[in-house]
Write a structure and sequence with these properties.
Number of helices of chain C: 6
Number of strands of chain C: 0
Radius of gyration of chain C: 20 Å
Helix content of chain C: over 70%
CATH class of chain A: Mainly Alpha
Chains: A mainly alpha (about 100), B mainly alpha (about 650), C mainly alpha (about 160)
Oligomer: heterotrimer
Largest sheet of chain A: none
CATH topology of chain A: Helix Hairpins
Distance between the termini of chain C: 60 Å
Shape of chain C: globular
Number of domains of chain A: 1
Shape of chain A: elongated
Number of strands of chain A: 0
Order of helices and strands of chain A: HHH
Chain lengths: ~100, ~650, ~160
């Protein structure tokens, strides 16, 4: 059977869900960041799939993907900087112990 | 022809003097308070002159009515209220009474209130009162009548509680206001009922509707009874009479003007003014007659045993007002039952009641001024501490005696003529009540002369000053008293009754009727009995008191009406019952509601804030759950 | 041709999913990071299947080259040997939410009528460059802003982690 749009989209959905689980259920801040990267990759896959199958003449799909990659990079940079900064003051990267903003 | 402005000026001049005293004299000229007295006397004197002019005009006018235009005062949607004045015979007579007695009392007050720190305030309130009373008399629609009605009630409160630092005075003022308010509630309800059913406040229009029959039946009866309840309150008839004896806490000239001659007469005036309505409802007018007659004898019995001069005079006033109500009521009953024709009967009723009001104003005011004069000399009102004052205060004695003879109904003094009218009418239409008031004639003479003999005859029993210190009052007080004494004699000779549409009476011919003889005999008996007990002491008052001990207690405790009202109704039923229930409701329900809302909010907050765990993952979870929920909603609801 | 693409797709899909699961579930963080890099590589392969050649290259450069390295550095700098990669409190709810999300997405994908176009695109680089930088419909402004954003991110990161 030929691979169609749905296959890529379902792949993207599975990847996204795995990333979602990791972002919500894990305690290590870096693992959460890695899960977010998974989610972003999933989005990229679906964006390119849409470009390929729905509007290949229009380059907007790929442009969008480029910008998502740029933003992902920026986000990882700042995120890791924050995690390291927290690690320096608290000796931990366990998010369940970083809850000063609670009631 | 008299312009409307003059009629309005009669009302407004005393208000002007009130304004001048309050805003100019008291702030700036407080070191010369006697100016307040002069201003008041000037304004009321001018009103008197204008009232005399009005009287002359009314006498000349056809039908004894001056037509005056009225002005639109307030228009809201379909409702419009007009101001206007009615100057007819009734109004003209009342104007004379009010302005003349008020003027004489103000002159007297200059002497009585001399040196009192509230001198200016006194005259300000007196001016305000006179203005309100004149407005009440001249008003041609119920709204304004009610406005001035409340105005005189307010002034009564202010003047009874004039010496407000005395707790009894303050209490008496509040009691007066509240008890009359109870009656006024009925009055207001009646006004609104009438408006709802007829769409007008104008008195003339209401009369026409009542006489034609458009306004009739239950509505008319209830409205009339409501109006009468206002009169019962203001004129201190049973059962709203309890405030008047306590009102004697105020200065004596106040008692003379307000609680003898004018304000309490306002109730009688109201019934007279609304007489066509009353006469068209049998139930209402019978109520008037019954309450009037009963009150007359009820109050007279209490007056028999009072030891304070002013209290005796207060109950005497209540009794005499009962006479006036009975006069109106008796004629009204005759009209309602058809015994008298309508046109003649309407005027006769007014004549009978108001003629007695006219005479009563003069001799009762004089009696009070005399009591004030006695107080000025002896420092007390307790008759047990008086006696023998006739030598030291001859003028006071003479005028007081004349007034007493007048109130007892001795021919040819004024009181005889008006009492005759009432007795005659009540004999024809309400014989039972006639019997009661006939007895009251005896009682009146007796208690009045009891006062005369205890105060002026015999030996001085007081201890505050020895006999050498007792002196007659100054001329400024004696002068008005003399004038009133002259009026107490001759006012019955004036053709007031005919002027109002009643019957005339011949001077000597009145002696021919058996009714006159009966009343004269009874009066004479009363005087003689008082003479026997209190002057010659042939019968000891003490032994009589012991012999009739239970009756004596009944009278001197005033039939326990005050106790009934205050201890039973007010304390137990109202305060402990109703008000306590309201208080509990307020505490538990209303406060509970408010506090409950607050407490609930706090408790809810305490639980809801647990959502803020500070953990980002929970927040992220919430976002995605929200997304899923939105999708679900779209899925279910298309 | 079709059959090759089909096989490639299924193989790559299996690797992606396996690597993703490894990232999330492995106890050793370092191993998780390695599997993340593998995942990035395979996603580049997917891009190639989809004829986005430039994007595949960009993916490898950016994700593997920059982000992957950064993550490994961070792991080394924040070593917590005892803890490892434990699961949080919200494990079960997250699982449920993830599954529900997945089911929702799949349902949407399957039931929508996508207007699939049959033509095969040409090599993309020049078209991509034109789309990005052309004067009328270009995304030049967005491009420049993205550059500024990256600059800001770098400066921010430096400020956050410098020694006081």
């Amino acid at each position: 059977m030929a691979v169609g749009l749905e296959h890529f989209l379902i792949l993207s959905a599975i990847l996204f869900s795995i990333g979602l689980y990791g972002a919500l259920a894990k305690r290590n801040a870096i693992v959460i960041l890695m899960s977010v990267e998974l989610m972003l990759n999933a989005v990229n896959i679906s964006l390119v799939a849409f470009w390929r199958y729905v509007a290949p003449a229009l380059m907007t799909g790929q442009v969008f993907v480029i910008f998502v990659m740029v933003l992902a990079a920026a986000e990882v940079v700042v995120g890791l900087a924050i995690i390291i900064s927290i690690y320096r003051s608290r000796e931990t990267v366990d998010v369940e112990q970083i809850d000063l903003m609670k009631w | 022809m008299m312009p409307t402005e003059v009629a309005l000026a009669i009302i407004l001049l005393p208000f002007l003097s009130f304004a001048i005293i309050s805003f100019i004299i008291r702030p700036f000229f407080n070191n010369r308070p006697q100016i307040s007295g002069y201003v008041t006397i000037a304004s009321i004197g001018t009103s008197l002159i204008l009232s005399l002019w009005a009287l002359v005009e009314v006498v000349k006018a056809p039908g004894h009515v001056l037509t005056m235009p009225d002005y639109l005062w307030l228009a809201i949607g379909d409702t419009s209220i007009h101001i206007g004045v009615t100057v007819d015979a009734l109004a003209a007579v009342m104007l004379i009474v009010v302005t003349l007695v008020s003027l004489l009392v103000q002159i007297y007050s200059q002497g009585y209130m001399h040196g009192d720190p509230g001198y200016s305030r006194y005259f300000a309130f007196m001016s305000l009162f006179t203005g309100s009373m004149l407005g009440l008399v001249l008003a041609d629609n119920l709204v304004f009548l009610y406005l001035f009605w409340e105005g005189v009630g307010l002034c009564s409160y202010l003047l009874i509680g004039f010496w407000f630092h005395k707790p009894e005075a303050a209490r008496a003022a509040t009691k007066a206001f509240l008890v009359t308010r109870l009656g006024d509630f009925g009055f207001l309800a009646a006004i609104l009922l009438l408006y709802a059913n007829t769409g007008t406040f104008d008195i003339g229009e209401l009369h026409e509707l009542a006489l034609v029959g458009t306004l009739g039946g239950a509505v008319l009866t209830w409205a009339a009874i409501g109006i009468f309840s206002g009169a019962v309150g203001k004129s201190a008839q049973f059962p709203l009479h309890t405030w008047l004896p306590d009102a004697m806490e105020g200065p004596t000239p106040v008692s003379a003007l307000i609680h003898a001659a004018t304000m309490v007469a306002a109730g009688v005036y109201l019934v007279a003014r609304m007489f066509p309505m009353f006469a068209s409802s049998t139930e209402a007018i019978t109520t008037v007659a019954i309450i009037g007659g009963f009150t007359a004898i009820f109050a007279a019995t209490i007056a028999l045993v009072m030891n304070d001069i002013k209290r005796v005079l207060a109950y005497s006033t209540i009794s005499q007002l009962g006479y006036m109500m009975l006069g109106l009521g008796a004629v009204g009953v005759a009209v309602a039952s058809g015994a008298l024709d309508l046109e003649h009967g309407l005027m006769l009723g007014v004549a009978v009641g108001i003629f007695h009001l006219f005479n009563h104003a003069f001799f009762k005011a004089l009696l009070f001024l005399g009591a004030g004069s006695v107080n000025h000399a002896t420092g007390t009102f307790d008759m047990r501490l008086m006696g023998g004052l006739r030598k030291a205060m001859p003028w006071t004695y003479a005028t007081f005696l004349i007034a007493s003879l007048s109130i007892a109904g001795i021919w040819p003094l004024a009181g005889f003529w008006s009492k005759e009218g009432i007795l005659a009418e009540s004999f024809h239409s309400v014989p039972i009540l006639f019997a009661l008031v006939l007895i009251t004639v005896f009682l009146t003479a007796f208690y009045m002369f009891r006062v005369v003999f205890m105060t002026f005859c015999g030996e001085y029993r007081g201890q505050s000053q020895d006999s050498h210190g007792l002196h007659e009052s100054p001329m400024v007080m004696i002068g008005p008293m003399v004038l009133l004494a002259i009026l107490a004699v001759v006012s019955g000779w004036l053709p007031i009754s005919e002027f109002l549409g009643g019957e005339s009476h011949s001077f000597f011919g009145a002696l021919a009727s058996p009714m006159s003889w009966a009343s004269l005999v009874l009066a004479g008996l009363g005087i003689f009995l008082a003479y026997a007990i209190y002057s010659k002491k042939w019968i000891s008052a003490e032994s009589l008191r012991r012999a009739f001990a239970p009756i004596y207690t009944l009278f001197s405790r005033k039939y326990w009406v005050d106790e009934l009202y205050e201890n039973f109704f007010v304390m137990r039923i109202l305060i402990d019952g109703l008000f306590a229930a309201f208080h509990r409701f307020d505490d538990r329900v209303i406060d509970g509601l408010v506090n409950g809302v607050a407490g609930g909010t706090v408790a809810a907050g305490r639980h809801i804030r647990r959502v803020q765990t500070g953990q980002l993952q929970l927040y992220g979870m919430a976002i995605f759950v929200g997304i899923l929920a939105i999708v679900a909603v779209f899925f279910i609801f298309g | 041709m079709e059959i090759g693409i089909t096989i490639a797709f299924w193989v790559l899909a299996a690797v992606i999913i396996g690597a993703a699961l490894a990232v999330v579930l492995l106890r050793n963080i370092f191993h998780a990071a390695i599997f993340l890099v593998l995942c990035f590589f395979t996603v580049a392969g997917i891009f190639i299947i989809l004829s986005a050649d430039f994007l595949a290259g960009a993916q490898v450069l950016i994700y593997v080259g920059a982000i992957g390295v950064l993550i490994i550095f961070a792991i080394m700098l924040t070593r917590e040997t005892q803890r490892g990669n434990p699961s949080g409190r919200l494990r079960l709810p997250a699982l449920i939410v993830g599954l529900l999300f997945l089911i929702t997405m799949v349902a949407v994908v399957v039931s929508t009528n996508w207007n699939v176009v049959a033509e095969i695109p040409e090599p993309t680089i020049s078209s991509l460059a034109q789309a990005l930088f052309s004067k009328e419909n270009g995304f030049v402004l967005a491009f420049e802003i993205a550059a500024v954003l990256l600059l800001a991110a770098i400066i921010g990161a430096i400020v956050l982690v410098r020694e006081k």
